[in-house]
Amino acid sequence: xxxxISYKLKKSKRAKRMRLAVYxxxxxxxxxxxxxxxxxxxxxxxxxxxxxxxKILFFKxxxxxxxxxxSNKDYLENKEKALAFVQERIEHYNNFYRFSxxxxxxxxxxxxxxxxxxxxxxxxxxxxIFLPTKLQDYIxxxxxxxLKEFNHSKNFWALVQKTLxxxxxxRKILRNHxxxxx
Length: 182
Description:
Layout: E1 8-12, E2 19-22, E3 28-33, H1 38-47, H2 49-61, H3 72-97, E4 103-107, E5 114-116, E6 121-125, H4 133-146, H5 154-163, H6 167-177
Parallel strand pairs: 1-3, 4-6
Antiparallel strand pairs: 2-3, 5-6
């Protein structure tokens, strides 16, 4: 079944694990750490075949105009608005958590909604402003909670649950939204 799926392989020295992406044009890209043998890549794709085919069918079934694509111009035009929004929401939720934050920035990330560094810097994707409110809040709370728990342990999810009791439902919805906002 793997030979039914054509894909582009990107080897990355920054990748820590294999990643599979299906884009709205039906293209499939596998990103792999350096040194991963081709047979392992093929096994990885083989295990994900049904998921890939489902995503390709999904994109074929919808009107391409419904999918928003972004350019660097979009980033430059929305960066300040996104930063103001993100800072306001972080302040709102951090009134509850009271964690120390070093710096907040907005970036044009391709594969992440946000990140938190060990130096207590929060980075958020400017595209967050195009999401529904509950998804925005989930991303903000998720990153704030990483200031205390730099992992995805039970303690981390317990922190998230304090302000977002239905976080797992929101998380599932966000996974579908990732397809639209690349």
